[in-house]
Write a structure and sequence with these properties.
The complex is a heterodimer of chains A (256) and B (329). Chain A has 256 residues and is an alpha/beta fold. Chain A has helices at residues 36-52, 67-76, 94-104, 127-135, 189-195, 205-208, 238-251; strands at residues 2-6, 9-11, 32-34, 55-62, 80-85, 112-116, 139-149, 152-158, 163-170, 173-177, 200-203, 217-223, 232-233. In chain A, strands 9-8-7-10-6-1-4-5-11 form a nine-stranded mixed sheet, with helices on both faces. Chain B is built from eight helices and 17 strands. Chain B has helices at residues 19-34, 48-55, 75-88, 100-112, 225-235, 243-247, 278-281, 313-328; strands at residues 4-8, 11-12, 15-16, 37-44, 61-66, 93-97, 117-127, 130-137, 142-148, 154-158, 177-181, 192-198, 211-215, 238-241, 268-272, 289-294, 307-310. In chain B, a hairpin with a 2-residue loop joins strand 7 (117-127) and strand 8 (130-137). In chain B, helix 3 (75-88) crosses helix 4 (100-112) and helix 5 (225-235) packs parallel to helix 8 (313-328). The termini of chain B are far apart. Classes of the chains: A alpha/beta (256), B alpha/beta (329). Strand 9 of chain A pairs antiparallel with strand 12 of chain B, so a sheet runs across the interface. Bound molecules: flavin-adenine dinucleotide (FAD) (2 copies). One flavin-adenine dinucleotide binds next to helix 1, strand 4, helix 3, strand 6 and helix 4 of chain A. One flavin-adenine dinucleotide sits between chains B (216-218, 242-244, 256-261, 273-275, 277, 279-280, 283, 293-296, 299, 312-314) and A (13, 117-118, 142).
Chain lengths: 256, 329
């Protein structure tokens, strides 16, 4: 199976985020990491390849710093990488991101495309499904298991509140992968070494420009949410805080 | 002709998903602000009863969009049917709840109409002739006001709990219901869905627990779960967790709180090292009292906490266990 994994670089989970001056995004001087479900998508692709042979290609759209995501993926075992490299790619809405990706892979023949189910920054939760529609392929979302079968694949969709559903579908297809579908591997030293020699194709904005249009959604203003609750902050050294909290649990919450 | 706001209610296996009432409340609020006309639609096979139920609310009209191919749900059939409908009945905005089902087909539908979907919205404003939708960004650390461009229709999906189902206005009289039969040709539907099932054997019923101590990724290692268990035991409560803890297998899945786990409403919910992502919050915000211990003073969990402790849980939990034991004598 030939599998493409779309991976996005996002601000690190624990990074303190500050608003930019225009109040439209965060300041870019933060640390970045791979979007969490995308790491699970890569792991799943590597496992499918190990079972059925084939090729795993990883792709990201973003500035030079995003190459780190591809390097890590190659070190974990991906065969080659595609980097849509331009600072302008990160500002595209989900529709245009998908259109740019589709244009960049038009000469490839994938059986499967994996994306994460949603990003940790904007959280559109749409890019994979949009890409499927652009390609004219079927899709399934929030996937927790993938098995090859006669006519294509059987996937396990997660539904709300602990429910699941199996879906049979033909290939090629797009799947959006949920965190927790598998256990992630670490890159090995030898993998990190090999990664340096693996092919990485760069695609410029100019090459895909014809496929991309204006954004259909615009962030007018980004801001810190207003608190809706009167939160009481308990302060002091740990022993004192513990005492204060127990007082509250006794006298106000009345559970002690 | 005025602009149309269309609410597509959600049905699964012929039953109305109650979260749809929240979306109708949202639609009524937008209609009041803009003066646009609010209509509703239900999509399925033999779902006329639901259309009737919705027609009792204050909406101008209800469409019952029917095809045998719409049961069971598939993204192909739903997207096809609504595209056909919207091509004949243009709307300015189309509102739906942000459910797993809607997430599954709306991006496809919007793309097939060359338009966009603003997802997981928590509020809206009408400002100088422009509709703005508020949505969480960066996992709830920020919110953004988002506008849409293009000819539309703009799809908008609302986060669970953003509008109140009990605020939905009833109509003076029942709204007219029009049945629209759509043709979903053979070959459109490619996926074959099987029966829906529940996997986790429920060994514990957290919905009945009065006190819950819940751990998140801040607990760092599996062996530290013991510390949280000791606190739960001292309080006489149950242990629960955020999703990554259960994904790791550190606690069984039936102890997961959130949209893909349990929904609980204890007297006390004590969150240790949980950031407060919306998918977690929907499972516990009904708690009478919420205590959060987190080292990050800007963690979104503090927005819904009654009592907050900013600090390292490993410093605070041990003395807390001692104090609880003392208090209990
Ligand atoms: C400064 C700035 C301003 C912005 N302003 C706007 C704005 O005004 N309007 C707007 O619509 N967007 C804006 N964006 C872009 C927005 O943040 C998203 O990156 C974009 O819309 C895609 O949505 P998402 O990442 O939430 O996708 P999702 O649909 O949530 O992502 C799902 C999956 O798609 C894949 N994927 C998504 N993006 C990429 C990528 N770049 N490379 C590889 N795989 C990917 C990943 O597998 C991911 O898990 C802005 C971004 C920046 C940096
Ligand atoms: C479709 C979907 C369904 C989902 N369903 C669920 C669900 O049912 N339940 C659920 O929980 N999640 C669910 N999620 C995942 C959710 O989005 C979050 O990723 C998850 O809740 C984060 O878990 P967390 O708070 O434990 O981890 P993180 O977000 O990593 O937060 C860890 C927190 O611990 C704090 N911390 C770290 N060290 C310490 C310390 N020493 N002392 C104190 N604090 C510390 C950090 O400041 C941080 O705030 C779902 C996501 C999606 C997309």
């Amino acid at each position: 199976m030939k599998i493409l994994v779309c991976m996005k670089q996002v601000p690190q989970k624990d990074a303190p985020l500050k608003l930019n001056e225009a109040g439209t995004w965060i300041r870019e001087d933060v640390s970045y990491e791979v979007n969490e479900p995308d790491a699970f998508a890569l792991e799943e692709a590597l496992r499918q390849k190990e079972k059925h042979t084939g090729e795993v290609v990883v792709l990201t759209a973003g500035p030079a710093r995003a190459q780190q995501v591809l390097r890590e993926a190659l070190a974990k075992g991906a065969d080659r990488a595609i980097h849509l490299e331009d600072a302008a790619f990160v500002g595209l809405d989900a529709y245009n991101t998908a259109r740019a990706i589709a244009a960049a892979i038009k000469d490839e023949k994938f059986d499967l495309i994996f994306t994460g189910l949603q990003s940790d920054d904007y959280g559109y939760a749409q890019t994979g499904v949009i890409l499927a529609q652009i390609q004219g392929w079927p899709h399934a979302t929030i996937i927790m298991q993938i098995e090859k079968n006669e006519g294509g694949i059987r996937v396990k969709r997660e539904l709300e509140a602990g429910f699941f559903q199996f879906v049979d579908m033909p290939l090629p297809a797009v799947l959006t992968i949920q965190s927790g579908i598998n256990k992630l591997r670490y890159a090995t030293l030898i993998g990190i070494k090999q990664a340096k020699t693996k092919p990485l194709r760069k695609v410029t904005m100019t090459e895909v420009q014809a496929a991309v249009g204006g954004n259909l959604q615009k962030i007018e203003k980004l801001y810190v949410p207003q608190k809706s609750k009167n939160t009481e902050f308990l302060e002091g050294p740990p022993a004192e805080v513990a005492k204060k909290l127990v007082e509250k649990l006794k006298n106000e919450v009345r559970v002690l | 002709m005025t602009d149309i706001i269309l609410v597509v209610v959600e049905q699964r296996e012929g039953k109305l998903n109650r979260v749809s009432w929240e979306t109708i409340t949202a639609g009524q609020a937008i209609a009041a602000q803009t003066g646009w006309t609010l209509e509703a639609a239900v999509v399925g096979s033999g779902v006329g009863t639901i259309a009737g139920e919705v027609a009792a609310k204050k909406v101008a009209k209800v469409y019952d969009i029917e095809s045998a191919k719409l049961e069971p749900y598939t993204p192909d059939a739903f997207s096809h049917a609504l595209k056909e409908f919207l091509t004949k009945h243009p709307a300015k905005v189309v509102l739906m709840p942000h459910t797993y089902q809607v997430r599954d087909f709306v991006p496809k539908l919007a793309t097939s109409l060359h338009t966009t979907a603003v997802s997981d919205v928590i509020g809206c404003k009408y400002d100088g002739g422009k509709l703005l939708f508020t949505r969480q960004m960066f996992q709830g650390k920020f919110v953004a006001d988002v506008s849409f461009a293009g000819a539309g229709p703009c799809f908008v999906t609302f986060q669970n709990g953003s509008f109140r189902a009990d605020k939905v206005e009833a109509g003076a009289s029942a709204a007219p219901v029009e049945t629209v039969n759509v043709d979903v040709p053979d070959g459109v539907v490619r996926n074959k869905p099987q029966e829906v099932f529940k996997e986790a054997k429920q060994a514990v019923d957290l919905t009945q627990a009065e006190i819950i101590v819940s751990v998140g990724r801040g607990i760092k290692e599996q062996k530290n779960i013991e510390l949280a268990k000791q606190l739960a035991d001292a309080l006489g409560g149950e242990i629960a967790a955020s999703r990554p803890i259960c994904d790791n297998g550190w606690l069984p899945m039936d102890r997961q709180i959130g949209s893909s786990g349990q929904t609980v409403a204890p007297k006390l919910y004590l969150a240790l090292g949980i950031s407060g992502a919306i998918q977690h919050i929907v499972g516990m915000k009904g708690a009478k009292s919420i205590v959060a211990i987190n080292k990050d003073s800007e963690a979104p969990i503090f927005e819904i906490a009654d009592y907050a402790v900013v600090g390292n849980l490993f410093d605070i939990v041990p003395p807390l266990i001692e104090e609880v034991k003392k208090a209990k004598g």
